C-alpha cells in the first residue's frame, strides 16, 4: 500500500513544471423540471455570432490559470504537441493535438457549459480552445469525438461553425461508425426527429482507420465497454482513451449504460495495456480525490502496476464482478438526458419550436401511480 502511494506521488510530481493552459470555476447546479428550454447566457458567443479572422475575442472571465493543466513540448518535428484543458464541472479533459511542422491540429471531446438550474448554455470551455488555436496559429483539420457522451454536452458543432468562419476549411466532426445504433436507440427514447440526427456526423471511422493531422498519422481504435460505439485515438505514442481508463486511483469507466458491457471494457483495457510501457494514456475524465490535482495522462507502465481495476494480476472475472458492484451503486450522471439529446445530434441544438424555444425532454420520476 505504501509503495502504491509513493507511485501515485511520483505520477503527480512528474507532471509539475510543464506549460499551463486554462481551467474554469466549478458551478454548483441542481436539476429540476421535465421539459427544458435552452437559454443562452450573456456574454456568450452563440452559433449565429462570428469572430473576425484577425481575433478570437474571448471574455477575460472565461480564462483562469490552472496549475494542473499542461501543454507538452515537441522534441522532434514528428512528435505531436498536446494541449489539455480541464472543465471541472463535468470533470472532462478537452484536448488539442497539433503537428508542429504544419500547425495543423485536431480537437478531441470539446465541452459546452450547461447549467441545469437555469438551462443556460455557455461556451467558456470551448472558447478556451479557440483562444489556444488563435494564440498558437493552428488550423483545425478535424474535431474528434470518442463516443456519444452521457455526462456533458458536446461543443463540436459550435466549434465547427466558429472555425469555419475563421479558416479556409470546415473541420469535419468525426466519430466511430457504431454511433448510428446509439443515435437510433436514444432518438426513439427522447423523440428526436430523424432529420436532426441522421448524417449529422461528417465522418464515421472504421475500426483501425488511419487519418492524418498534417504530417502526423492517427488511428481510430474501437474500445467498447463504456458504450458500444466508443473509440480511442492513437497519435504517435499517445492514446486518447475517452471514457475507458481513468486515473489509476479511480480505475475504469462505468459500463451500465445501454450497450455497455464490463467484459468488453476489460478486453478494451487490456488492449490498451498491451501497448509499449512508455505510451501515454490520456483519459477523458478525472474526478480527483482530496489531495491531488486533475491529471490528464498516465503511462501504460504505471497503469499496469497501479490501476485499481486493471493492474496486472486482476482477472476478467474479478474485474467484471467489481465493475458491476461499483456500477450498481452509482447515480445517473446529472446531465444524462440533456447530454444524450444534444450529442446524438453531433452537438447541434434542437430545432426551435413554433414559439422559438429549443426544448429538451426530461423524464419524470414518480413514487406511485400517475394521476
TrEMBL record:
Domain Metallo-beta-lactamase per the UniProt entry, residue ranges: 91-285
Instruction: Name a single GO biological process.
Output: glutathione metabolic process
The superkingdom of the source organism is Eukaryota
Q: Name one GO molecular function term.
A: sulfur dioxygenase activity
Q: Which CDD domains match?
A: POD-like_MBL-fold
Q: Does the keyword Cell cycle apply?
A: no
Q: Which Pfam families match?
A: Lactamase_B (PF00753)
Q: What keywords appear on the UniProt entry?
A: Metal-binding
Q: Which SUPFAM superfamilies match?
A: Metallo-hydrolase/oxidoreductase
Is Metal-binding tagged as a keyword?
yes
Q: Which SMART domains match?
A: Lactamase_B
Against PANTHER family, the record matches this protein to: PERSULFIDE DIOXYGENASE ETHE1, PERSULFIDE DIOXYGENASE ETHE1, MITOCHONDRIAL
Q: What is the recorded name of this protein?
A: Metallo-beta-lactamase domain-containing protein
Which species? Penicillium italicum
Amino acid at each position: 500500500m505504501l509503495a502504491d502511494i509513493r507511485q501515485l506521488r511520483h505520477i503527480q510530481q512528474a507532471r509539475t513544471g510543464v506549460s499551463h493552459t486554462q481551467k474554469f470555476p466549478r458551478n454548483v447546479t441542481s436539476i429540476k423540471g421535465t421539459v427544458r428550454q435552452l437559454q443562452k447566457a450573456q456574454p456568450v458567443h452563440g452559433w449565429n455570432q462570428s469572430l473576425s479572422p484577425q481575433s478570437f475575442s474571448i471574455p477575460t472571465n472565461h480564462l483562469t490559470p490552472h496549475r494542473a493543466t499542461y501543454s507538452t513540448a515537441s522534441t522532434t518535428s514528428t512528435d505531436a504537441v498536446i494541449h489539455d484543458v480541464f472543465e471541472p464541472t463535468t470533470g472532462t479533459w478537452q484536448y488539442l493535438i497539433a503537428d508542429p511542422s504544419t500547425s495543423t491540429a485536431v480537437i478531441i471531446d470539446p465541452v459546452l457549459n450547461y447549467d441545469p438550474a437555469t438551462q443556460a448554455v455557455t461556451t467558456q470551455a470551448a472558447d478556451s480552445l479557440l483562444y489556444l488555436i488563435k494564440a498558437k496559429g493552428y488550423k483545425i483539420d478535424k474535431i474528434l469525438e470518442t463516443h456519444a457522451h452521457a455526462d456533458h454536452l458536446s461543443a463540436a458543432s459550435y466549434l465547427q461553425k466558429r472555425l469555419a468562419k475563421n479558416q479556409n476549411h470546415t473541420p469535419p466532426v468525426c466519430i466511430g461508425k457504431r454511433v448510428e445504433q446509439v443515435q437510433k436507440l436514444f432518438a426513439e427514447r427522447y423523440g428526436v426527429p430523424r432529420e436532426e440526427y441522421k448524417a449529422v456526423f461528417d465522418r464515421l471511422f472504421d475500426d483501425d482507420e488511419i487519418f492524418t493531422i498534417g504530417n502526423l498519422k492517427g488511428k481510430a481504435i474501437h474500445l467498447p465497454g463504456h458504450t458500444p460505439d466508443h473509440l480511442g485515438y492513437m497519435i504517435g505514442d499517445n492514446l486518447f482513451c475517452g471514457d475507458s481508463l481513468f486515473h489509476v486511483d479511480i480505475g475504469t469507466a462505468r459500463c451500465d449504460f445501454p450497450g455497455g458491457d464490463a467484459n468488453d471494457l476489460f478486453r478494451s483495457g487490456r488492449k490498451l495495456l498491451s501497448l509499449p510501457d512508455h505510451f501515454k494514456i490520456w483519459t477523458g475524465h478525472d474526478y480527483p480525490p482530496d489531495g491531488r490535482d486533475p491529471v490528464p495522462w498516465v503511462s501504460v507502465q504505471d497503469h499496469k502496476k497501479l490501476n485499481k481495476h486493471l493492474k496486472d494480476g486482476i482477472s476478467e472475472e474479478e474485474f467484471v464482478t467489481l465493475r458491476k458492484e461499483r456500477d450498481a451503486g452509482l447515480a445517473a450522471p446529472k446531465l444524462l438526458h440533456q447530454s444524450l439529446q444534444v450529442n446524438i445530434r453531433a452537438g447541434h441544438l434542437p430545432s426551435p419550436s413554433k414559439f422559438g424555444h429549443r426544448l429538451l425532454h426530461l423524464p419524470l420520476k414518480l413514487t406511485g401511480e400517475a394521476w
